[in-house]
Amino acid sequence: MTRSLLSLLSGIALLAIAPCVEASGIASGDWVVRTDLWGTPAFSTLTLASEHGRLQGTFDGDALDGSVRGRSLAFDVADADGQRSRYEGRIANDRIEGRVDAPDTNDRNARAAHAFSAWHVPPRPPGGPRTIDFAPRDFSNTWDADRAPVLVLWPGDTVRTKTIDSGGVDEHGVTRALFGNPQTGPFFIAGAAPGDTLVVRLRRLALNRDSADSLDSIVGRAIDRGYAKETEGLGKPVRWTLDRGQGTARPSHATGALAGYTVPVAPMLGGLAVAPGFGMPPMSTGDSGRFGGNMDWNALVEGNIVYLRVQQPGALLYLGDAHARQGDGETSQYALETSMDVTFSVDVIKGESIDLPRVESPTAIMALGQAGSLDPALGSATAGLVDWLRKDYALTTSEAAQVLGSAVQYRVANLAGRSVGVAAALDKALLPPSRHVVSARADK
To answer: Among residues 106, 114, 111, which one has the least CA distance to residue 44?
Structure first.
């Protein structure tokens, strides 16, 4: 981690709450460790406690033992295979920098030295869940595990913030970022770790300007080859007028048959993601995957709950690419792209992991499959829904098959991205009660 990144993270921690620093100079509690493995960052969770110069705790769940003297510390960690690593570093308030002597990744009998750094996760503030107003100062064009968090949240916290449009323009018409779906975040959720599920409740999605932009295009995946020549001249910009009072949108300069065309707005987020897992490079905010991403799924609306697989310490939640409205598949390449006021809250399901993004509405459960073409995306969506039925509704595979055969609904979520998306949905009224605590409090 660069010094500039560490400085920013230190500022975040200090703003949230001053860390509990022992007389030895080490802050007890939770830390996030970044180890530079030959240029590839690996992130780990570290819990430390010191007493009379002795250090104890865990490193990614493995027990550690060591010592601290003044501003210097050293500790040893043994993994499940008995392989030992030795960490030595210097403490500076809420950060640590040092070196680790670890087993070589290709030779158990060889050793390798790597630089590591760590930042202290502030303890949970008193008083229970908070509501925080956050005004973004910059935006990200990548889903990136190595980007400094903009805010540290705890499960139960609610954030009121803003997004800009896919071209980087804010509600005042000012360019704030490069085009390409720039995102607000990431938000670090304390306590979230790989193997958990992040729960994002979309509390409020509100348009904050009177215009949106789209195209008069039809994406190639959505049209028959024989008709493709008819669409060669398409792809021109279309400006939409948003009437926030009436809750409608219309093409601003429509003539002829579209002169009176008006549609209700349905604000949604095109982008919602956690940081990709270990070994994954920063990914463009035009991409999607198991981490969520540029899903462009019109189920990401106010009142719904989104479930994402945590792949890095703190999850690192990003959101953006707001649409005033989007038809299934985003067939015009751009939906009604605009900026938005967003209120969301976070929760964590500890020790339970899902494979693919899920959405729960007041009336339905939905699993999203994403792949390079529709067939595998549909297969992934089906598998995701069956997994949900088996784990949370106690259905056998046979029972799940009977439910799908009689009640499943498929929607084409996205055709405009590098990956396509298919969603599989079921009406909750047809299902037995969920065993899942989050579903039980979905209306909170």
So the answer is: 114
Ordered structural domains, the chain, with CATH:
3-120 (2.40.128.30), 131-210+265-352 (2.60.120.580)
Residue indicated by tokens 């001053």: 18
Task: List CB contacts of 44: < 8 A, sequence separation 6 or more.
Answer: 32, 33, 35, 59, 60, 313
Residue 1 has pLDDT above 80, yes or no: no
Q: What is the distance between the alpha carbons of residues 93 and 10, in angstroms, rounded to a whole number?
A: 9
- Residue 93: predicted pLDDT: 82
Residues 6+ away with beta carbon under 8 Å from 301: 202, 205, 266, 267, 268
Residues in the chain: 444
Classified as helix, coil or strand, 302 is coil
**Distance from C-alpha of 421 to C-alpha of 369, rounded to nearest angstrom:** 6
Round to whole Å and give the CA distance between 146 and 297: 26
Task: Quick: pLDDT tens for 7-55.
Answer: 444 444 433 433 444 445 577 899 999 999 999 999 999 999 998 899 9
Q: Which residues contact 200 (CB under 8 A, 6 or more apart)?
A: 272, 305, 306, 307, 308, 317, 344, 345, 346
What sign does the dihedral 412-414-419-424 (CA atoms) show? negative
pLDDT band, very low/low/confident/very high, at 443 (cuts 50, 70, 90): very low
| pLDDT for residue 437 | 54
Strands 283-284 and 305-309: unpaired
Q: Write down the pTM of the prediction.
A: 0.92
186 prior amide bond cis, ω within 30: yes
Residue 313 tokens, joined: 């310490």
